[in-house]
Structure prediction request, 135 residues.
Amino acid sequence: MHELPVTQGILSVAIEAAEQAGGRRIVAIDLVIGTLSSIVDDSVQFYFDILSRGTLADGAVLRFRREPAILVCWDCDYRTQVVAPLPALCSACGSTRLILRDGQEFFVEAIEIEEPPPEESNNESSSRQGNSGEQ
Prediction:
């Protein structure tokens, strides 16, 4: 259930960025999620689809990228990708001095905003100016 406030935060950040870009529609949002974070992609997508209705993010695509968790041994510097449950000992040297690097992150990496349409009024006035000189 913690995906609801997380998704509200994502939507808030994305809408603020879209408004700063001139209030254009959000096309896609790229999210980075660590494999050990407790964030469930489908739940975020579910809440996003509901919360974004009628906003600049309505219809935007969420793109999820999972980052692996890396366990590092302080004694021998052995590094390995891990999943829960985490090992208590280094598989290379048996040390208990381990530190988790990566795998718990969760952030918005990028927000893709719809490109502004070409200004028709500028194109029309340019065409008129070009045509008026050709007589």
User: Anything to note?
Assistant: The mean pLDDT is 88. The two ends are 71 Å apart (CA to CA). The first strand starts at residue 26 and ends at 34. The longest helix spans residues 3-20.
